[in-house]
Amino acid sequence: MMNVLIVEDDPMVQFIHRNYIEKLNAFNDIYSCMTVPDAEHLISSKKIELILLDINLKIGNGFDFLCNLRKDKNSIEIILITAYSDSKLVGNCLHMGILDYLIKPFTFERFKESISLFQQKKVELSAQEISQTALDRLLLPFEKNPLQADTLDKGMTEATLDLVYKTLKRFDHPFTIQELVQASGLSHVSVRKYVSFLEKRSIISSQIVYLNIGRPYKKYLLN
Prior knowledge:
Blueprint: E1 2-7, H1 11-24, E2 27-33, H2 36-45, E3 50-53, H3 62-71, E4 77-82, H4 87-95, E5 100-103, H5 108-124, H6 132-139, H7 158-168, H8 177-184, H9 188-200, E6 204-209, E7 217-222
Parallel strand pairs: 1-2, 1-3, 3-4, 4-5
Antiparallel strand pairs: 6-7
Helix pairs in contact: 5-7, 7-9, 8-9
């Protein structure tokens, strides 16, 4: 798992972001600050893979901070989380290579989709080469999943299901839950839930491996 930085000057909103991230259990460390100078200090002293960034800050401006990062060729992934919905600003942010743009207020489900998109991008770009299909998943991230949304169990999202499914397709051998956790960057609890969902629908199958010593365990294979 990786580290995330929240740049938000409203303590309550910052608390909500942190609470959402903790629910997802997708990051090792969660850093937070309220100003651009503090954000600059943190990214220079800590290993940060993702920034949740507001635009209007008491000290500094989020968009200027984004521009300076790109000017310095810093490729940290950025998700803009702001009340600003001006189309010109959104366009400028997209040109600066942001991963996603969330307009306040937003739902927890939409927030999860954004984090899942970040995780999926990490998985796809970790390969030595990338296929057109993989590129399409990154550039068209919310394309309709063959498993319709109304079939999903409570608490599940299409984006995370897609991430799990695309990740397990990369295995050329039967895999364990732990292997899928490491490959996807998701928590053990989340992976187990989505694997169970796919197995119930006969998309994957499992086999029990018995050991001479120790407890048996399951391996899974795409049907």
